[in-house]
Records
---
Amino acid sequence: MSYELLSTCSAIASKLATKYDEFAVMIYEVNNVMSKIINNQIALNLSRNLYVIDLYLVRRKRIFTIELSTSDLSQVIKLSDDISNYVGLIKESELYSPLPEVKPVKPLSDILDRNVENYLNDPRQICELLINSAINEGVDRVAGTLSLSIITKALVGSNGFEGLERGSEVTAYLRVFKDDSSGQWAYGGRSADLRSLEEVGRKAAHYALLGRKSASITPGRYDVILSPLVVGNLFELVAMMASAFYVLSGFSIFMDVKQGDKVASELVTLIDSPRDIELPGSTAFDDEGVETYDKEVISNGTLKTLLHNSKTASKLGAISTGNAGWIVPRAWNIVIGTGDSGEDEMIKEVKNGLLISNNWYTRFQNYVEGTFSTVSRDAALLIRNGEVVGNVGRVRIADSLRRLLNNVRLISREYYSIKWWEVTVPTKAPYMLVSDINITRPFE
Amino acid sequence: MSEDLLNYVVDYALSIGAKYAEARYQIDEYFTLILRNGELISVNKSVSEGVGIRILHSNVLTFAATNKLSRDELINTVKTAVGRARALSHLVKTPISFSEEKLGRGSYEVKVAKDFNSLSVDEKLDILSDLHRSTTTSVKEVSLPVTYCEYVEHVQRKMIVNSDGGYVIGNVPRLSIMFNLVMSSKQKGSLQRLMQWGASGGLELIDLWRPVQSVEDEVRRLEKVLLYGVEPPKEPVDVVVGSEVVGLMVHESAGHPMEADRILGREAAQAGESFIKPEHVGKFKVGNEFATVVEDPTIPGSFGYYEYDDECVKARARYLYKNGVVCEPLHNRQTAKIFNTRSNGASRSMDYSSEPIIRMSNTYLKPGGMSFEELIEDIRLGVYIKSYMEWNIDDIRWNQRYVGLESYLIVNGELGQPIRNPVLELTTAGFYNGISGVDKNLAFYPGTCGKGDPSQGVPVWFGGPNVRLSNIRLGVTV
C-alpha cells in the first residue's frame, strides 16, 4: 500500500506540532478515469491523477480547516502558518471539542478490486458491455458515464491516530432512449462486477421500452411506487438531515425531533453502513480517527440516532458515531431496509397510481418542515388496476418528506447498489410503495 | 507555472499525433468563514492548483488533469491520456473537429477598490455577526431558532495555451455571502429564507450590498408573511414575478435549454437534454415580444464575469431568445462546428481538474420602460411573488415550478395582504407567452450553476425586471 502517503502526512504533522494544539492531516490520492458515452459512442475520456490534502488545525479552541489540491507541500506549510495569524483575532469555536482518544480500529479488507486497476488503462471492455447491454434490448440511443477509481486515503492526527486505506470504486449509469421514451439505471460499487454493469443497460432499457405508450394524469393524490433510483435520491436527503450539523444549522426535518420519536412508517429502516465493503463509501475510520460502525439511523420508523462527529456529539450530549467530517458529520454508505414485496407485486397492489422510475432536481421550500418537490424523468408509468397502462411523462412529487416517510406501505425484497449524479452517497435501495402522494404538473 | 511549460506540453501532445492540444494552469484560492447564530464555527482556506490538458487524439477527445506539476509528470499525464484515447478510438463513430476561430492572445483582470486584506478577520466577523444580531432584534412576535452564514472570498487565476494559437491569462476575485434563517411561530409554523450576495470584486462590495440593513428590512417583512400570510386566490389572476424569481426562470428555461451541448445530447444522462432542437435556431417561437433573454459574460463586476473563455475565444453578449424567437445557443468550438457557426465563447471550467464545458455566465430578461407602480396599476386582483425557496424544472427545461416566499396580494393596483407559499407551476411557453408587461428595474442575483460529471459549480448571475404574467392559476404547497 502507499505507505509513502502516510509518511507525507507525518512529515506535515511534525511541522504543525509547533504551531497548533491539535491537528489532523488527511491526504487522498485519486487515480480516476471517466468515459462518457453519448449517442452510442465514446465522446470524451477524462483522466485525473491528483493529491488532495486536508488539514484540521486547532489552537486555543479556535478551529481552522485547510483543503489543498496540490502536490506542492511548501504551500501546505505556508497556508498553515498564514492561518495561525488569525488565532488572536477570533473567538473560540462554539463547536470546539478535543480530538477523541485513539482506540483500536479494525481495518476493512477486500475493498480493492485489482481488476479496476487494469480497467483504468483500458476501459474499452466495460464501455462496450454498457452500450451493448442496452442496444441489445432494442433501444435507439444510449448515453451515460463509466467512472473507475483507485483512491488511497491516509490520516495522521495529533491524537496519535494513523490510518491508511486503499480502495477501488466503480460507478456506471446509463440513460437510454426508445422513440420518445427513456429509462435510466445506475450501479455503484467497489468492484467491476460485470453482471451488475450489464444490468444497468438492461434495466434502463426495460423502462424505456415500457414507457413507449403515452398516458395522461390529472394532478392529485396517488399511490406511487418509487424505484431504487428515486428512493436513493430521497433517502440521501434524509441521511443528510440526520447529520447533527444540519440539525444545528436549520437544514433538517429532525430539528424538532427527539431520539426515539416516530419519524416514518414502521417499515422504514435507514442504516449508515460504513462496514459494507460492497459499497464504495466504506471506510474503517472517520476523519477524526474514530472507528466506524454500522448503525440504524431510523429503525422501524423510529429515529435512533443522529450522525455525529466529536464536536456535534459534545454540543448535543451524545457520543461520536464515527461519521466525522471535521465540521460536518455525514453518512458513508446508506442501506435501506428491505421488505417482503416485489416490484411486480407492488404494481398489482396499485389501483390508480404511478411507478416513478427516476427523478431529479429535489428542492425544499422549508427544510425544517420538509416541504419539497422533485421532478420525474424517464418513464413515469401510470398503473390502473394493477397494470401498467402508459407513460405520463414529466410530473412532480410535491409533498412533505415527513408525510412521505410515514406513508411507506410496501418495500421490495430486491435492492440495488446505486450511485449516480443524483445519488451521490452509495446506497443499497429497494423499491417502495408510498400511499397518497401529491402529484402535480403545470396547470395549462 | 510558466507559459513555456504549458507550451511544452502542447507541443509534446502534437508531436505524438494529437490534432489539437490545450493546457490550462488554474489556481483557485478560497477563504471561508462559517458562523452559526452569529458565532464563528470555523475558518477555512483552500487552494486548488494544477493543470488540465485537453487533447484530440485518435478521434477521441480526452481530458486529463494533474496537480503534479513537474515537466515529467505533465508529460506522463499526456502519455496516459493518449494511451486511453487509443484504447477507446474504435468506439468513436463521429470524428470531432473544432470551428475555425481567431483566438485571443492577452490577459484580463478584475480590479478591486478594496483588497480582501483591507479588513482584518475580526472586522469581517463583526459584520457577519451583525447579520445575526440584526435579525433577532428586527422581529417582535416570532422566534429565530437558528441562522447560518457562509462568507467566501475566491480568487481564480488561469493561464491557457492551445495549439491553435490561443494564449490567455485571467485573474478574477469574487466575494459572496450566504445567510440562511429559520423563523418560527407557535401558531403559524415556520418559514425558511436563504439570502445570497455575490459579485466579482473586493470588499467594496460589502459597502454596496449593505447586507445588515438588507437583512433587517427583509426579516421584518417575512415576519408579516409568516404571521398574516393567507392562501393565494384559487381563480386565475395576473401574477407579477419579482426580479429574483424572473432571473432564476430565465436561467432555467432560456439559459440551460440554449446550451448547444445539451441540445446535441451531450448531457443526456446527467442534466438532461433540451426542448430546443438544432433546427429551431432562428425559427422556433417560444414566447411573445417581451421574451428577450440576454447572456453576457462581459458585465463589469458580475459574478459570472470573464473576457475570454477557456478555449481562448473572446467573450461577448448573446441573445438567447429575441422578441420571442430562439436566437443563438451558447457554443464552444466543438458545437459551433456542428452548427456550422462560430463559437460565442461559452466554454468554462470550475477548476483545473474539470473539463471546459458550455456554461452560462450572466443571464437576464431584457427590462422595459415602466415603473413597478405602472406595472401593477391596472391589476384588479393579482399576486406579487418577490422571492422564492423551492424551485425545479424538468430535464428538457419545459415544466417548471417556483414556490413564492415573500408574496403579496395585489388589489386594485396596490400591494396588499401577504400570501404564503404560492406555487407558480407552468411550462416554458406558458411563461414566455404569458408576459404582459415588464418594468425597468433590472436586478441581478448570484448563484452557483451545476452541470457536468464530475459536477462543476460555476458562479453566475441571473436577473431581470419585475414581470407581469396574465391569467395564471396558482397552486399551494401541501
---
Amino acid sequence: MSDETLTEERPAPERIDDVVIRFAGDSGDGMQLAGTQFTASSALFGNDLATLPNFPAEIRAPAGTIPGVSSFQVHIADWDILTPGDNPDCLVAMNPAALKAHLHDLVKGGLLIINADAFDDRNLAKAGYDTNPIEDGSLDAYRMLTAPMEELTKEAVKDSGVKGRATLRSKNFFALGLMSWIYQRPVEPVMDWVKSKFGEDSPVTNANISALKAGYNYGITTEAFQHTFEIQPAELPAGEYTNIVGNTATAWGLMAAAEKAKLPLYIGSYPITPATTILEELARHKNFGVKTFQAEDEIAGIGTALGAAFAGRLAITTTSGPGLALKSETLSLALMIELPMVVVDIQRGGPSTGLPTKVEQSDLLFAMYGRHGESPLPIVSTTTPSDAFDAAFEAARIALKYMTPVILLTDGYIATSSEPWALPDLDTYPDISVPFASHDEADGPFLPYERDPETMARPWAIPGQPGLEHRVGGLEKDSTTGNVSYDPDNHEAMTHTRAAKIARIQADIPDVEVHGEGDELLVLGWGSTFGAIRTAVNRVRKNGRPVAHAHIRHVNPFPANLGDVLTQYKTVLVPEVNTGQLARLIRAEYLVPTVSFNRIQGQPMRAREVEAKINELLDGEAGE
Amino acid sequence: MTDTARYERSDFQTDQEVRWCPGCGDYTILASVQTYLASLDIDREKHVFVSGIGCSSRFPYYMNTYGMHTVHGRAPAIATGIATANPDLTVWVITGDGDGLSIGGNHLIHALRRNVNLNIILFNNQIYGLTKGQYSPTSEVGKRTKTSPLGSIDRPFNPVSLALGAEAAFVARTLDMDRNHTIDMLRQMHEHDGAGLLEIYQNCNVFNDKAFIDLTDKSTRDTNRIWLEDGKPIIFGPNDEFGVVVDNIGAKIVEVSQVGADAIHVHRADDPNPSVAFALSRISQGPYGPTPLGVFRNVKVPSYGKVLEQQIAAAQTDKGAGDMAKLIRSRGTWTVDA
C-alpha cells in the first residue's frame, strides 16, 4: 500500500456545517485513542470542536458486555460551537454491546459504522441480542455501513512484525482511517503522532499506520463508502489555537499563577478519578520548579499543601468528592490559621464512590458548608475546558490576596473534555504576588493577626525570617497578638472577621454579565452547563423569543450585581446537574423564587433539554 | 553554656503560660528541647515545631520558634509539606501515643518510610490525657480506664518495633526525667539526615502515674535500664552482670558470667540489616522489666527533601528552566488568520 493512494481523486464530498460523532467499543478497543486522534487532526484542520469522553469506572470490565463499553464523542463544526453535542449523527460501534449501549442516542437516519466481525453469536449473546441486528432489519432507520474490520486489520498488519492476537489491537486505527476518509480528515497528523509515540520504525508503529491506511483506502475503494462529508475550518477569531483538555488547562493555570505570584508551586495530592491527571501533568514539569508530592491519603494531600503554604509556597491540593470530605477538617484549619491554598474539586457523580468517571455538580453545597464551625471560604467555578486555565488563575489570585483557602470547582466533564483554546498573551495576566511579612523590632512585637486594612488579610510570615517567629494553630486566636484566646467577645469578633474577609472579596470580582434580552426569563447557571445553556438560549433567541443568560464564575461570594439582575426578570430558570443546589443558595441569599431544571444522569446538561424547558416556560407565561 | 553559644535557653521560651499539669513529664522534655536548641549554631528562625492534638501538642506554643498546632494525627503530613517545600528548615514534630499511633498512625509510618527530613518526638504516656484518661494504643492489656472499666482488651503497639517495621532509618527511646540522655538522643536524631523517631517515656502524673516505675524507681531502675551504646557490648545491671545476646531467633537477656563477655552482642546502630534492631526492640513489650533505651537504628538513607531538590535541578539542567509560553504551545497549534 503506497502513500499515493491517499491522494487519489475522490468523489465530491457533501459539505456539512457540523457533525457529532461517537466512537464506541469495548474498553479494550482503544476508542478513547481513536477519538482523541480524530479530534487532534480536526483541530489542526481548523474546525471548532468539543469532546466528551465516556468510560467505565472499571479498567477492564468483562469484554463484550455493556458495562465494558467505552465511548468518545466529538462535535466538529465550521462554526463556534459550545457543547460536544446532544445526539451523535454518526455512531461507530466496534461490537454488539457498543451498539446496544449507544444506538438509542443516534439521530434517526444517522450514519452507523459497524465492525461486522464482532457480531458473532457469542458477542451477540453477551450484549443480550437474540438475533443479529445487522441482519434482522432493526437498523433500517439508519444508514448502516458494515466492514469486517478485524479481518482487514489482520491482513493489513501481517508484515508489520506484530504477531498473533496483538494484530487485532490495531483495529481502532482501521476505524480511525475509515472515519478519516468519510469525514475527509487528514491522516498525516495521526501518522506523525504514532511515530512519536511508538518509535519511527517499530512493529507497533508499522501495524498502526498500516491499519490506518487500510481503513482509509477501504473507504476509497469500496463502493458502499462513496458518500463523504466535508466540514470547512471554523471562522474562529484570529489567533493561535491549541486543543486543550480541562485538567491540563487547570494544571497550566496553576503554573501560570505561580509564575505571576513569583512563588514555587507545590501540590500535595492523592490519586482520585477524575482529578489525577492534574497531578500527573504537574509532575511532568519539575523544570518549572514545581514540586509534586503524592501523599499517602487525601488528608496528607491537603496536609502537605498546608505545610507548604506555611513555608511560603503557592500550595495546591486536588481531589474529587469523597476526597473533599476527607480534606474537610484540614480545610477548616487552613481557614482558621488563614493561609492561602487552592483546593481543586473535580466533581463527579456521588454520594460515596457513586459514578466516579461521570459528571455532576453536586458538591456545591458541600463546598459552601461542608466544614465544622463557622467556616466560610471563596468558591470559584469553571465553565469550559479552556476556561479552567483562567479559573485556576483566579482561584490562586484570591487565595494569595486574601490569605485564605479557595475551592475551585470543576467537574468530570470539564476534566476530560477538550476544545480549541485561543492561546492567551501571558504578559496580560496581572502580577498576583503578595509581599511576605517584614517587621522592625523597634515597632514592638510582631503581630501575626494584624490585618491589612483593605483586604483584611493577615501577614504571611514564613519560617526562616528572623524576628517573625510566631505560632499558628487551630485554637481560637486573639484578634491581634495571635495568642490562644478563650475570650467570648474575641471569639465572636473573630468569627465575624473571618466571614467579613470573605464577603469583602465581592468588591474585587467582576459583575455577572447578561447575554440576551427581555424581562421575561433569565437562565442562571454555573460551571460546566455554560455551553448547553448558551446554545439553548441562542436557539430560542434565533426564533425571535426574548430570553437571557447569566453564568456565575464566583459562587462565593456572589457577584455584587447578581441580586439586582435577578429581580429584573419575571422568571429565573436554574439548570443544574444536581437537585437544585445553586437554586437553594440563590433563594436563601436573595429571596428570589427560581424554577429548577435538573438532570442527574452522570452526563453533561443537554442544550436540547434546556431549550425545551425555556420554551415551556415562555409558552406558559404567554398563556397567562 | 559556653561563651561561644549564640543562644540561651530563655531565647527559646515564649511569654505564654505553660499550662500542663504540675509535675507533668512534658515540662522536663520542654526544658531538654530548649536546652538542646540553645546549644546549636542554627538560626532560631530556621526551627519549625509542628504538633497535632493532645497534651503534648501544646508544645509549639511554648517554643519561641515558628510553630503550628494542627489537626489530630496530621502533624507528620503537615510537617512533611514544610520540610519538602523548604529543605533549609529544621522541622520538629511533637506527637503523642494517641495522636501519632492511633488517629495519625498512617502519616507517621509514611513519613518514616519516605525518610522526610523530620525529627519526630513521640511523647508516650500510655494514656489519653487531654480527654481525661482513656486507654491508648500503648496502654497495657487489662488497663482499667473510664472507657475500659473491665480492663482494656486492646493489644498495644511497641512504637520502636512499629517504626522499624515502617523502614525508619533512625529510631531511639529515652526517658523524660533523664535530661542528659534525652538531649543526647535529640542530638543524634537531629544530626541524622532524614526522618527520625524518638520515643520518650513520659509520665502522666494525673491519669497514668508511675507507668514507668520499673525504669525510674531507684530500687529497680539499674536492673531494668538497658543502655544501647553504639559500638559497645550491651551490658546492664547494678554490677553489669546482665547482657544481651542475639541469635537467629532473636535477642535475649543472659547472665554475663554464664555465656562469657565475648558472647555479648556489640550494638551497631548503623547495621544495614534492621533485623537486629527489631530483635532488640522485642526484649520488652513496654516499660516493664528490663527495657532497652538509646538509639536502636541510625543508618544513612538519602532524605526525601534532598532527592526531590536533585530531581528538580536535574530536570532544569535537562530541559532548561520552564517557559509557560512554550508549554501552552507544546501540544500542537494552528493559526486562524484575521
